[in-house]
Design a protein that fits this description.
CATH architecture of the largest domain: Alpha-Beta Complex
Distance between the termini: 38 Å
Structural class: alpha/beta
Largest sheet: 9 strands, mixed
Order of helices and strands: EHEEHEEHEEEHEEHHHEEEH
Number of helices: 8
Number of domains: 2
Strand content: 15-25%
Oligomer: single chain
CATH topology of the largest domain: Spore Coat Polysaccharide Biosynthesis Protein SpsA, Chain A
Number of strands: 13
Length: about 290
């Protein structure tokens, strides 16, 4: 069984370098999509350069999306409509990956992640599973490789064999809940699964490893850009949050809660044994990204 690692790109050069380095020995091909439009709909330049990764160049399939979704709401008048258009752009970036797997064997494994979600492909639970769909339960890190957000796990990377793949957006939107076989409603739902494996040692989610200016740009253009614009968070505040190791977004509250951007949780500095071996062995290379 071969493994195909699929992800999207905006401007995350650091995370792509780390991703390729950690997963290289397990992966047959890296499939990377990049759009000429941000999630907020702004026209953007292409930032991914395959020549910057000469060691992995022969493994990378780079796909460019130079169009908007066909069914966008043309005149966005509410935050809901802006968010809906963002979701459509995100789904397009996922589903475009289908163009790269036409010749992939039906028994091969397709893994879909955001580029800061790194699955643990050395997990024995992964190697032994017989389930149709796999979700990776990942440790959650912020701003630096060793600043741990200990309040919640992150269910990030998701995988299935090609023969079980309904669509990439379907795979991405699956919830990390395994339903019992006797639940009748699972027979009528694409998203309530009984044949699901959650890999508890599923890897690492390294979010917001960016300089303050780059992080501000991310928030102004990501899926929830409309909400961030209303939060009042500026460059000065982001710099302070990073320097103090403070999480300002509450991942646990209802998404409709307007106070979710006013969180103040102190991250925990952890030892190298919680990290991928590659990072622990290359701390000098990534010294700016360790606290």
């Amino acid at each position: 069984m071969k493994i195909y690692d699929c992800t999207t790109f905006y401007s995350e050069h650091l995370m792509m370098d780390v991703r390729f380095s950690i997963l290289d020995k397990y992966v047959e091909k890296f499939i990377v999509t990049e759009s000429t439009f941000s999630h907020s709909g702004k026209k953007k330049s292409l930032n991914f350069n395959i020549n910057e990764y000469p060691k992995y160049k022969d493994k990378i399939i780079y796909l460019v999306i130079d169009e908007e979704p066909k069914d966008l709401i043309e005149k966005e008048s509410t935050s809901y409509e802006k968010r809906l258009n963002s979701i459509k752009r995100i789904e397009l970036s996922y589903n475009h990956m289908d163009k790269a797997i036409g010749n992939v064997n039906e028994e091969d494994l397709i893994i879909l992640s955001d580029n800061d979600e790194i699955p643990n492909l050395n997990s024995k639970n992964l190697q032994n599973t017989k389930k149709s769909v796999i979700i990776f339960k990942q440790l959650f890190f912020y701003y630096k490789f060793n600043l741990f957000y200990d309040l919640m796990p992150w269910y990030g990377s998701k995988a299935c064999k090609k023969k079980n793949l309904k669509s990439f957006s379907w795979l991405r939107n699956l919830k990390p809940k395994k339903y019992p076989f006797w639940r009748v409603d699972t027979f009528f739902s694409d998203y309530k699964l009984t044949n699901l494996e959650i890999i508890n040692d599923g890897g690492w989610h390294f979010t917001n490893l960016k300089k303050p200016k780059d992080l501000l740009d991310k928030f102004n253009n990501f899926g929830h850009h409309d909400e961030f614009a209303e939060s009042g968070i500026n460059l000065e505040k982001i710099e302070k949050y990073i320097n103090d190791g403070i999480v300002f977004y509450n991942h646990s509250v209802d998404q409709k809660n307007p106070n979710k951007w006013n969180y103040n949780y102190k991250l925990k500095k952890v030892s190298d044994n919680m990290l991928p071996n590659y990072l622990a062995e290359n701390k000098i290379k990534y010294k700016d990204w360790f606290s």
